[in-house]
Design a protein that fits this description.
CATH superfamily of one domain: ANL, N-terminal domain
Low-confidence stretches: none
Radius of gyration: 24 Å
Number of strands: 27
Strand order of the largest sheet: 2-1-11-10-12-13-14-15-16
Mean pLDDT: 93
Largest sheet: 9 strands, mixed
């Protein structure tokens, strides 16, 4: 790793319409998407030129419906029509409102109402729910079904709209293609994760996202030769900016994953070079690679490989070719986001030749705030601040840990229709993240936990649950854990944990009648031995089921610690 390697060259973009137009000119005949209709079929190619034609056709039709300047929601699984819909709305129609496809009907209704959506583009899975709530949403004028082949009285067909738009373009209609973009007003409205009552509507401008694209691509190499497998939900700003808009900006190919159960199959078919992942996925990959039956063989290979690297010879891809073939043979980097990840896992994957770095972002920052470079990184860190973004630590405690705040052109315009929350979050231009941490001597951001999760010990010291959860995750017998504080009988605060074990592994190693609590108790003792007394876990319980999570695969802590 070299600290002072120059940033990668990036091209200047004014807004997302400008970005897309430039990419079409530069990469027109390149493959933009690899798509398939069903799991049995091979991937087929969609070029940048074809994508541009589809975007222009749908955008023209939406303009002719009278939707110019309106809010248009999109809800559905990751598919080509989602990508066309998003780019059509954002490059000339109005404000795009991506909505989580996993939300229940009442929450979908709430978000459509809160966003004042005039239209919703949806897939067939949501047809019934959308029809049921339509009458309760007087501002919702148009329902557009991605899968319907013929128009009905109350539902428009996506494919027919696109065909009509194509005809209008051929007849000289330029209302969409000539539409001007103001890069400094709201162009994207995103809801943060959480329940409907807790979620905030984040207003992002084209400039916020364009700045983020330029900055993060200057830190991490993405080229037109890359094939990116899209596996995370597109409504989430992490995947949308970093797994869709970034790839279109840099001219590479997006292979659409058919769903998490098809991920290994799609990896073999698409042979990706890059993937965005969340820690849960990395942990799953890691446990499969480093399964007990593989450890000895991998250990021999690692000893040989690491010795060769000390004298400047890198044979990792050859020595661990079987591992690389499991990932399609071309995977060069995994980018992890959404939550901190175990640095021990990152190091072991890197030693196999699977580059894996993590970044740090929030919806309010469009989303990337910090990123580890592919040529300069620290596994225990969230990364270096993006170029031009000022990150500070305020209200530091005795250990130098405080709240992370940031100021930059990627910071949101504010929370939609919520001036009070905006004024609390952005003070003197600095966005207050609610995350705690410090900046080390090399400028890397080290996150220690969430402000709202901190446990205040009886001696006044701060206990960060995430630190203890990371140590617990080192155990082969523990899949996930949540650490929290509660008052004991004497009014003091004690550290507690809820732990979900790997029951299959326990059964295979200890037989049918294994004592889960006894085994986990020994693992807790090992962790306590690594901690000062006030951080010790005094009480724990074993969960029989996996913890409830958001659709971005974050554990719902409040549901567990209530």
């Amino acid at each position: 790793m070299k600290k002072n390697l120059p940033l990668y060259e990036v091209r200047k973009i004014n807004d997302l319409k400008d970005m897309f137009a430039q990419s079409v000119r530069l990469y027109g005949e390149n493959t933009a998407f690899m798509v398939k209709e069903n799991p049995a079929e091979p991937y087929t190619s969609v070029t940048y030129n074809q994508y541009n034609s589809d975007v222009n056709s749908l955008g023209t039709a939406l303009i002719e419906l009278g939707l110019s300047g309106q809010r248009i929601a999109i809800i559905g699984k990751t598919r080509y029509e989602w990508y066309v819909s998003y780019m059509s709305v954002v490059t000339g129609v109005g404000v795009v409102v991506p909505i989580d496809k996993e939300l229940p009907q009442n929450e979908i209704k709430s978000l459509l109402g809160r966003s004042h959506a005039s239209a919703v583009i949806f897939s067939k899975e949501h047809r019934e729910a959308i029809l049921e709530i339509k009458s309760e949403l007087p501002e919702l004028k148009f329902l557009i079904d991605m899968d319907q082949e013929e128009a009905e009285d109350n539902i428009l067909s996506y494919s027919i709209l696109k065909a009509k738009g194509s005809d209008m373009l051929s007849a000289g209609n330029t209302k969409f293609t000539s539409a001007l973009i103001d890069p400094n007003v709201m162009g994207i409205l995103l809801f943060t994760s959480g329940t409907t009552a807790e979620s905030k509507a984040v207003m992002l401008s084209h400039h916020n996202v364009a700045y983020n694209l330029e900055s993060m691509c200057s830190m991490l190499l993405v080229t037109p030769k890359d094939v990116f497998l899209s596996v995370l939900p597109l409504h989430h700003t992490y995947e949308c900016t970093c797994g869709f808009l970034c790839q279109i900006y840099r001219g590479c190919c997006i292979a659409i994953c058919e769903g998490l159960r098809y991920i290994l199959k799609n990896i073999q078919e698409a042979r990706p070079t890059m993937m965005n992942v969340v820690p849960l996925m990395v942990e799953s990959f890691y446990k499969k690679i480093f399964a007990r039956e593989n450890v000895k063989k991998l250990g021999i290979g690692l000893t040989l490989s690491n010795s060769l690297r000390l004298i400047g010879i890198d044979r990792r891809r050859k020595i661990f070719s079987q591992v690389h073939e499991k990932f399609g043979g071309r995977l060069r980097i995994l980018i992890s986001g959404g939550a901190p990840i175990n640095s021990h896992m990152l190091k072991n994957l890197q030693d196999l030749g699977l580059a894996c770095v993590q970044g740090y972002g929030l919806t309010e920052c469009a989303p990337i705030l910090a990123l580890n470079r592919d040529v300069y990184f620290k596994n225990e860190s969230a990364g270096l601040p993006l170029p031009g973004v000022d990150v500070k630590i305020i209200d530091k405690d005795a250990d130098g840990i405080g709240e992370i705040i940031a100021k930059g052109e990627n910071v949101m315009l504010g929370y939609y229709e919520n001036e009070e929350a905006t004024s609390e979050a952005i003070i003197d231009g600095y966005f207050h993240t609610g995350d705690l941490g410090y900046i080390d001597k090399d400028g890397f951001i080290i996150i220690t936990g969430r402000k709202k999760n901190v446990i205040i010990a009886k001696n006044g010291k701060n206990v960060f649950p995430e630190e203890i959860e990371s140590l617990l995750s080192h155990s082969d017998y523990i899949i996930e854990s949540v650490v929290y504080g509660r008052e004991d009988a004497f009014g003091d605060v004690e550290v507690c944990a809820k732990i979900f074990p790997d029951f299959e592994l326990l059964k295979s190693e200890f037989g049918e009648n294994f004592d889960a609590r006894g085994i986990i108790s020994e693992e807790v003792k090992k962790v306590n031995a690594l901690l000062v007394n006030y951080k010790h876990i005094h009480y724990f319980e074993v969960s029989d089921v996996e913890f409830e999570k958001t659709t971005s695969k974050k554990i719902k802590r409040s549901a567990i610690t209530a």
